[in-house]
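Fold this complex.
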Amino acid sequence: MADLVLTASVLKETKIQIENTLIKAGVNTVLLIDEAGNIVVACGHKINNMDTTSLAALAAANFGAASQIAKLIGEDDFALLFHKGKKGSIHVARIGTDLILVTIFGDNVSLGLIRLRVAQLARTIGKAFGQK
Amino acid sequence: MALINLSKREIHCKIVYYGPGRCGKTTNLLYIYNAMNNKARGKMLTIETKGERTLFFDLLPLNLGKINGFDIRIQLYTVPGQTIYKATRKLVLKGVDGLVFVADYLKVRHEKNIESLQDLHRNLLEHNLTLEEIPIILQFNKCDLVPTPIPTLTEEELETDLNRELKTKIFEAAATKGIGVFETLKEISKRTVHYVATKHLLT
Ligand SMILES: Nc1nc2c(ncn2[C@@H]2O[C@H](COP(=O)(O)OP(=O)(O)OP(=O)(O)O)[C@@H](O)[C@H]2O)c(=O)[nH]1
Ligand SMILES: [Mg+2]
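Structure:
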């Protein structure tokens, strides 16, 4: 796994993409993280009142564990990881080879829309990061 | 996998404390957490079983200040040492930039120390990493037990078992009392940051 070197322009571009596709659609919080659990980009007005460091570490670990479980049952990977709560839900998806997108949203947004928008983002963000 | 944010001038590194079950990995992090002030450390996250054994990992984020104009952020992780959690240990090693191998002075852990180091070698290989590349140091923990009637290993025995090939720096420690804990942390942080910085020509 290669180290990530982030330039201001890639970060800015990615942030704009996330704002336009997910935050404007009503999503609360979006974290783009790497497989080691580092935060690459955090978006949404709630991020300052949230323990994003723990969230990123747990989401990366949870996603990694799910991938290993997939292999044990003969799958390559699970297409999505989704936890549904009473008010809030969380959607976790792979972006390119070594990034993970964590999307937290309320019952005002449908899972279908999230899946569609995340798939869209996977392509544009993948491009911005040079899709290693 | 270090993360270098050129826009905020931050370097994020991951340091993993590895070693057999009950050797004192979590105790190291707890001591650091309690001894550091709020500004320099984040929340400590632990995922453990009811019996206080680590189930997935512990995480302690630290802010080590500036080096060469870069803010140094370190994430300290521990693995679950119990043999059955091999798959979990491999996950925690993902993206590791530096390692502390914590060995146990207790005589009964003689075999477990050696097995754990072999397990580390294998898990790193599965991530295409080797100990020639990733910085590692050794900590011989529970040295407070040496003068007691409890059967312990000697420093020479631990060295022969664990440092014959590694030939790395060793720190004696008693993590419960904090002896050697910060010495270990300082050395591995220095080596890890140096390793990441030279790899990216930041020095
Ligand atoms: N005497 C003595 N006991 C210690 C020392 N360090 C840790 N212990 C004790 O050893 C036990 C296990 O310590 P932990 O830190 O939980 O061990 P661990 O390596 O995290 O174990 P796992 O999570 O199972 O991998 C605890 O009861 C500690 O109090 C030490 O320096 N001296
Ligand atoms: Mg532990």
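The radius of gyration of chain A is 14 Å.
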